[in-house]
Design a protein that fits this description.
595 residues; alpha/beta; eight-stranded parallel barrel; four-stranded antiparallel sheet; globular
Length: 595
């Protein structure tokens, strides 16, 4: 029997880290049989950001993905990443939603549940752990590793003991930001092993360049299972190469027993047939980036953060954001940075850089500060807590288990979805999809019949014969105008013949097309305008069209970088909205007028 077992991450964390979670199921299935025959302890195939990305970007049903993968790989346990009480979303859910989600995940094909809480708050493990055990599946409790003045080896050992008492089958050390140094890993695993009689699983990203050495020292310390990813999808913000670790241990007491030839075949498939299709999503962090030792941003967040900054036309400000990220983490009580805290802290860092420190706080930032996600090891900045309490109309921070304040909500969510879809019955998996991502889910249900998007290169289409050249000036009616959708964002594109110029053009054509908002409603001139502070999607209106509003009233909720941002009015009067809910808007775009 192999001394060290390997979990393969190529179908989840590898592409989440390298390609913003864009890999399609159709690119996984051709290699599934080979992956299933390799002899891995588990294959991580689901959870994390894959659920969100499936419905937001890929037009894929994530439930169908896990069913297909389980059917294609029946011999190897299918593993998922579960965010504790937040499941796969960005807020805590009522216990009945968590229980039903775990039940359905198990039915659809998940065998191993890696459960973590972004704050390492044991109270947030209770319900998902019980649900996994009830479903008869493997409950792996993950400790999120962070480096700060308040995170210690003794603290991690105490947490491991508490999780073991809850019924964990294995304990995972989750080093999402590549901060776990080799000798620190050795000391930590030895300390946990001395107190906890459970297998230890180590997950360490490659971002800072330490992961291969960290995994070697982890094995020497007694780690039982290691996370790796096939070499053609490894390193950078991803993980250590599977083949490299297999060969390092070959012939030693830690020999994995895996066949290098099978692994090389798998690697060649992803190198040749998969990775080239996702180049446009590829993270620029492909080497070792030691700035992360200070910023502590996990691998999966880096590629998403880059994409989000580009959406704000601020891709060049990544270095500032990394520095600000460390400051925000301290202000928020040193939460480990993993979803959703990595997204909350990262988005707040972006807003601080673009708009000024804490000039705008997301709803999620405020909820984290007041304890609605759980307890941080250090106390958050008291002035920020005061701001958050005021913003949420709360008198004091939350002290109990946050989910204790959330009444059962599954029936209500199901009834709401039926009403929105105008149907009398709904599939329970769709109800759970809607529970986690309400706005995105409704759009997905509309487009799902069209099937997944495609990243394959289209076949070359023969060009039609050239028409007779028109006059050198475009017709007064202007060029042809089309709406082009890219990654669920609409762009207005004008097309005219080469060599022509626009009649009465007031300005040159923009180098990059601007996003198209919904058609503006008629509004009288004058008054005070309300602009979008950043690009995003209009999630909802807090007031009705034409309502009287007062200074500092919240009037619009904008979804930007997966977080909710309240937009307030600086003037009193009647509000006229100039966009519709669901519209994609650019930074600086006028959204409403008050007069």
């Amino acid at each position: 029997m192999a001394k060290v077992k390997i979990s393969e991450l190529v179908l989840r964390d590898a592409h989440q880290s390298l390609h913003a979670t864009r890999m399609l199921t159709s690119h996984m299935l051709p290699i599934a049989e080979k992956l299933d025959s390799a002899g891995f302890w588990s294959l991580e195939t689901w959870g994390g950001a894959t659920f969100d990305s499936c419905i937001r970007f890929l037009n894929e049903d994530p439930w169908e993905r896990i069913r297909l993968l389980k059917k294609a790989m029946p011999k190897t346990p299918q593993q998922m990443l579960l965010r504790g009480q937040t499941i796969l979303g960005y807020r805590n859910y009522a216990d009945d939603v968590v229980e039903k989600c775990v039940e359905r995940m198990a039915v659809n094909g998940v065998d191993v549940f890696r459960i973590f809480d972004a704050l390492n708050d044991p109270r947030n493990f209770m319900t998902p752990m019980k649900a996994v055990k009830k479903a008869g599946k493997h409950a792996q409790a993950a400790i999120c590793y962070a480096v700060s003045p308040v995170h210690t080896v003794d603290g991690y050992v105490e947490l491991a003991l508490e999780l073991a008492k809850m019924g964990a089958d294995t304990i995972c050390i989750k080093d999402m930001a590549s901060l776990l140094k080799p000798y620190d890993a050795y000391a930590l695993i030895k300390a946990i092993k001395a107190k906890v009689d459970l297998p230890i699983h180590v997950h360490s990203h490659a971002t800072t360049g330490m992961s291969v050495a960290t995994l070697v020292k982890s094995a020497e310390a007694g780690a039982d299972i290691l996370d790796t990813t096939i070499s053609s999808m490894s390193m950078g913000t991803s993980h250590s190469p599977t083949e490299t670790m297999v060969e390092i241990f070959r012939g030693t007491e830690f020999d994995t027993g895996l066949d290098i030839n099978i692994l090389l075949e798998i690697s060649e498939y992803f190198r040749t047939h998969v990775r080239p299709k996702y180049r446009k999503f590829e993270s620029s962090f492909l080497g070792a980036d030691t700035r992360i030792l200070a910023a502590q941003i996990p691998g999966g967040m880096l590629s998403n953060l880059e994409s989000q900054l580009k959406d704000q036309n601020a891709g060049h400000r990544i270095a500032e954001v990394l520095e600000e990220n460390a400051r925000v983490q301290k202000d928020f009580g040193y939460p480990p940075l993993v979803t959703p805290t990595s997204q909350i802290v990262g988005t707040q860092a972006v807003l601080n850089v673009l708009l000024g420190r804490y000039k705008k706080m997301t709803a999620e930032s405020m909820n984290l500060l007041v304890g609605n996600y759980g307890r941080t090891l250090a106390k958050p900045d008291p002035e920020l807590v005061k701001m958050a309490l005021k913003g949420l109309n709360m008198e004091k921070p939350v002290e109990c288990r946050p989910a204790d304040l959330i009444p059962n909500e599954l029936d209500k969510i199901e009834a709401e979805l039926k009403e929105k879809l105008g149907v009398s019955t709904v599939n329970i998996d769709d109800v759970l999809t809607y529970a986690m991502f309400p706005q995105v889910a409704l759009k997905f249900f509309e487009t799902r019949p069209k099937g997944p998007v495609s990243f394959d290169e289209p076949a070359e289409v023969p060009k039609p014969a050239a028409a007779p050249a028109p006059a050198s000036v475009a017709a007064a009616s202007g060029p042809a105008v089309y709406i082009v959708n890219v990654d669920n964002r609409d762009y207005r594109v004008s097309i005219r013949d080469e060599g022509t110029v626009l009649v009465n053009a007031a300005a040159p054509v923009a180098a990059v097309a601007a996003p198209v908002a919904a058609a503006p409603a008629p509004a009288p001139a004058g008054g005070v305008t309300i602009e979008a502070p950043v690009s995003g999607t209009v999630l909802k209106f807090a007031k009705n069209h034409g309502d009287a509003v007062a200074v500092e009233d919240t009037v619009i909720v904008l979804e930007s970088m997966k977080m909710e941002l309240e937009i307030k009015t600086k003037a009193a009067g009647a509000i006229t909205y100039l966009v519709e809910t669901g519209a994609s808007v650019a930074a600086g775009q006028v959204l409403a007028r008050v007069q």
